[in-house]
Amino acid sequence: MTEQQERRERTYPPPFPDGWYRVANSKDIKPGEVRHIQCLGEEIALFRSDTGRIAALEAFCPHMGANLAYGEVKGDRLQCPFHGWQLDGNGRVCQPRISESFVQKRWEAIEYYGMILIYHSASGKSPPYQLPSQEKIDSGQQVYRGHHNAGEEEIHIIEFAENTVDFTHFSTVHGTMCIPWTQIKLPWIKIRHKPGWSSDKYLAYFKDEATLEIRGKIYENTRCSALLTFFGPGSVVRFELDIPKIGEITIFQTFTPVEALKQRIALRWFAPRKAPGILVSSVVGSWFSQLKEDLGILKRKIYQKVPLQAKSEGLLLEDMRRWYQQFY
To answer: Where are any strands of DSSP class E within the chain?
Structure first.
């Protein structure tokens, strides 16, 4: 970490709030396979038993410290590559003359619409909330249409949450349309935003109604609505987009902290089966272009604990920070 990054990090809250975090795609780990995952300041052995169960253990064997992620899956156990000790998915060491009271550090792991997630808690507590089922996907109204690994960005996870209550930046940063998936602006096409924000227990909601203005004329038939739901601290965010002539699209955006100022970002989306692929990709790509606009700023800023604000800004930010504090 550079001196500049260290200075930035010192301004921020702790880097790993409690929550559910994506660590892989389901298809990446087949029965009998194991992967080495680095995130949340941890090293994890993520494996799938021969029967299909996903488990996540601290990567280093409690015996002599070998990396379990380079071992083998034996039935429902993970075998150490060094001395052949075996651990089950609950962290128990299946070895004679080892106390049954010892349990290897583990994380609760689930599969969620093609993603593998683990629950991180700084104090080791069980998850106080579960991720909700998605009726439109479960019923077949929407089907899987794509995934995009957006790589790693040097930001703190709280920045995306704070960004949703910063309504004034929408006109300055997102007021001009970009070619989807790029940062190439189309200066004759403006975007008018009408945002809102609220919270409820472990969920927070950001709403936006967007309309295109082309060469100074507002086209009401382009009006679309977006509802972003934060499941926890922004580690999993669901986008529900209602697009004219395309239908409803659901996007899952995940932030996984690799370290304090480094987020692994991914998008996964679902849409009606008959919706044209190029149009669905264009919608997702338009969102991604806006995200990249934000990231270009967020990765160079510091965290202002007491920002100088206009009166209209302060209450929203205070509400959001108060809500976010529950994840520490």
So the answer is: 19-25, 34-39, 42-48, 54-58, 72-74, 77-79, 86-88, 106-107, 109-112, 115-120, 143-153, 176-178, 185-200, 203-214, 217-231, 236-243, 247-259, 262-271
Residue with tokens 């128990």: 92
168-199 pLDDT, tens digit each:
999 999 999 999 999 999 999 999 999 999 99
d(CA 149, CA 268): 9
Nearest-CA neighbor of 328 among 176, 203, 158, 145? 158
Q: In angstroms, rounded to a whole number, what is the distance separating the alpha carbons of residues 263 and 301?
A: 15
Specify the long-range contacts of residues 192-195, CB closer than 8 Å, at least 24 apart. Answer: 192/218, 193/167, 195/164, 195/167, 195/170
pLDDT tens string 261-289: 999 999 999 999 999 999 999 999 999 99
Mean pLDDT of the chain: 95
Lowest average pLDDT, out of 7-16, 37-46, 173-182, 241-250, goes to: 241-250
How remote is the C-alpha of 234 from its chain's centroid? 6
Q: Show the tokens assigned to 284.
A: 């997702």
Q: What is the 8-class DSSP label of residue 164?
A: H
- Which one-letter amino acid corresponds to residue 232? G
